[in-house]
Amino acid sequence: MFTAPASSGGAPVRSYRVTAADLTRTSRGGQSATSSGTVTTAPKTSATVTGLADGDTYTFTVTATNSGGTSPASAPSNRVIPRAPVPRDPIAEKYAALGGARSVLGKPVGGEYAVAGGRGQNFQYGSIFYTPRTAAHEVHGAIAAHYRALGGPAGLLSFPVSDELAVRDRIGRVSLFAGADGAAVFFTVRTGAYSVHGAILEHYLKIGGPLGVLGYPVSDERGTTDRVGRFSVFAAGIMFWTPRTGAHEAHGAILGRYAKLGYERSRLSYPVTDEYAVTGGRRSDFAGGTIVYRYTTRTTTVTYLH
Fold first, then answer.
1. How far apart are CA 271 and CA 191, in angstroms?
2. What pLDDT sits at residue 209?
């Protein structure tokens, strides 16, 4: 910023030129910037001079130009020493925000390192991983151990997009990840740490996640023996998925009957609905038929479409 001249010489000022003089290395300097106006608009009394050297000492002079010509240079400004901004270190900032060595991560056990297009740093009890897209997030404990077993940020789950979070039941923990069309690792002391991802995770969360009918996962996602579908096993049921049928769960007595028949290898094939209520019982529909459970008899009935 600078102050407009007290006198314009009788004609409006149309431009200002700001010129830098490098007092540290006099062979440099001479960088300048112009602020121009229009026929009806005066130029701004500010300009940005680029190309200055970090740590050098500069003074600045200003000239004004109107229809009569260009003025002599102003007196030099006060001395200015530009400083380049210190580069951000998102991992260090995250570690400090968590509480540093007093946090769940403990003390660092090495410096930052490059990994899978991002950055990481390891600590006594976990790690922090960062990319510009996902920001910096921590993983620790059993979830971190399982995440590393699955390949860490270079694996299927990719980089974390949350710190470890408490589940609303105050029993479980979960961390969210960017990979596999959305992924999560859930943990309880009883079930251990396992991942859920993609369409199965999406439907699992829609029906209540770990607080729903299935409970917590007790396996990672696996491929079915026919190489068509995928499935995840939970404490109280199984969720199956294929591109044609989508993701659907089976549990309880209906799942027990489905298992005895051979799951997706049976004539029923894959589920096409979740279990739902019918008069006097429960029902699940499959690509090849139905299973109905009756409350009064505590039995299941299988009906095939063909």
1. 25
2. 98
The CA distance from 293 to 300, in Å, is 4
Contact (CB, 8 A) for 25 and 56: yes
Distance, CA of 83 to CA of 55 (rounded, Å): 6
Residue 209: DSSP 8-state: G
Query: First and final CA of the chain: distance in angstroms?
Result: 84
Query: Would you say domain 1-85 falls under CATH 2.40.50.1020?
Result: no
**Average pLDDT of the residues in 140-144:** 98
| Upper half-sphere CA count for residue 43 (Cβ side, 13 Å) | 26
Residue carrying structure tokens 């023996």: 225
Nearest to 219 by CA among 199, 239, 205: 239
> Please, which residues have CB within 8 angstroms of residue 120's CB and are 6 or more apart in sequence?
91, 112, 113, 114, 127, 128, 129, 130, 152, 153
Residue span(s) of the chain under CATH 2.60.40.10 come to 1-85
Q: Provide the pLDDT confidence category of residue 118 given band limits of 50, 70 and 90.
A: very high
Q: Residue 30 — very low, low, confident or very high, per pLDDT cuts 50/70/90?
A: confident
pLDDT at 263: 97
Residues 6+ apart with CB under 8 A from 187: 141, 142, 143, 146, 172, 173, 174, 193, 194
